[in-house]
Amino acid sequence: MSEKKQKDISSGTDEMMKNVTELNVIIGRNGSGKSKFLRSISKLRNKDDYYVSYLSPERSGTFSDNPNTEHNARHDPNFLINDRDKNQSSNFKTASRMHLKKLALHWGRRVDCEQDLRLDTTRTFEKEYLAHINRLLSNLKLEVDAQGEFQFITQSGHKIDPSELSSGESEMVALASEVMYFFAMCGGSKTNLLILDEPDVHLHPDLQAKFARFLTYQIDQLNPKFRERTFTIIATHSTPLICDLALAKYCSIGTKRHESEEVLQRPVTEAFKSVAPFFGHPLSRFIGDDIPLIVEGADDVRIWGHACRTSGGRIRVFPCLATSKSQMNALEKTCDNLMRAIYDEPKAISIRDGDGERKHIHPEGCVIRYSLQCYEMENLLLTDECLQVMHLTWVNFIEMAKKWILKNPHHPQKNLLEDIIQSTDRGRDRKIKDLRNVIIGIADAHKDWEIVVGQAIGRLEKDFSVGAKSFSIREFIGSGALQAVGAIETEA
Questions:
Q1: Which of 24, 138, 369, 428 is the most exposed place for a label (fewest CB within 10 A)?
Q2: In order of start, what are the domains of the chain with their CATH numbers?
């Protein structure tokens, strides 16, 4: 992201956005003052060197002609501005239709004035604008009739009145019209601000994602000299919308907090993209009530996935991948910042490798952090529960391991295996990653090691006949972590 595409924007009073990029997402809990903040920034329209369009959060009305609205807008330049300065704009969609009609007139003037455009028959208003709106709709399309009026046509060819549109369809048509009108009217010598307050209202998560892609496409198509001075600002609670917008390389995210009038925009990091699948999947949080679980390594992601499926719904976590300790730290901070800005009761979990140490880790905000009480997840293969999943006991395994050693005297892992079966702790604090497939082979398990461990964790509440407590999964992972993910009941 080039430095010249970042700037600070001040409302002229107390409100300030710092490090603004081409696409800016502002998050924050209800009551944090996001709408008030955006309305204050929108007052920059009163300055000669700014062109501002503010789209209010509650967009009422229908996408149809209204003579009274058109009359008021024509005779009072501040009529629509004052209407949209309220949280609930009663004339919003009527004005959106007016703006789409103005856009059609603007296109007509361009065709008259630009010879290249006039001679290019492949470029029409329908293809340049209406086609983009229609790609957002599933069950109908928007057309221009012989009189130049807009009309909605169903898949079966029937004309329907704008009042019959679903709330989502009506919202999408109005928003798309406003966005395209704004970008068409951008001034090259001015700073252009498109401010959208909760554009996700009434939109299904799939439509939210579609709108995000529509918006970034419109930004990408801007004339480069306008784009340098054009900034889109979006306040939202929608995790699907945030995650799709974050795919744009010029996107930044800032948090509005109740006690502060300053919002600092930060570029989207790789850490955010790692936890984005959880936030971008609304069913995970809002219906399934899953909790993000940050783990070290792709193997651990697969293990916890199998544990969730085996548990029959008792374990409800959404595994998020960290590939290193440093990325684990970044993910924990990112997850804490984002969840506290969105949820009233934020909670996340991280489980780190033990790496041969038994330690307690303090929380990172709302992220409860645990360290394995063994070296890493591979060590769980030698717990009593995992051995039982493979239909073995520790004594059985030792006998089978000794036979394997006799048959494979030159195997590179022979010495490590001998050390493990002779140890008093089953190699609990040793790195045995290179032994994991050997153990599966000795046990003749016929399943991947991650499946064995995941199934054992998922079945913990069942009647495992565990021998010595010190060789149980409860000891190797830790009761606190297992209780946090729902694998075992909280002890009284």
A1: 138
A2: 3-267 (3.40.50), 275-371 (no CATH), 378-485 (no CATH)
Instruction: Count H helices and E strands in the chain, helices first.
Output: 22, 18
**Tokens, residue 133:** 């709106």
By DSSP bridging, strand 230-235 and strand 251-255 are unpaired
Q: Can you name the residues that pair with 84 across neighbouring β-strands?
A: none
Alpha carbon distances (Å) from 249 to 2, 25, 189, 307, 358? 11, 13, 25, 35, 41
466: left (phi over 0), alpha (psi -120 to 50) or beta: beta
pLDDT tens, residue by residue, 372-431? 999 999 999 999 999 999 999 999 999 999 999 999 999 999 999 999 999 999 999 999
The pLDDT tens digits for 285-326 are: 444 467 889 999 889 999 998 999 899 888 988 888 888 888
Which pTM value belongs to this model?
0.67
H or E stretch covering 53: strand 50-55
Q: Distance (Å, rounded) from C-alpha 488 to C-alpha 362?
A: 22
- Token pair, residue 190, equals 């001015």
Task: Tell me the C-alpha distance between 235 and 56, whole Å.
Answer: 10
CA–CA distance, 339 with 194 (Å, rounded to integer): 26
Token pair belonging to 135: 């790609």
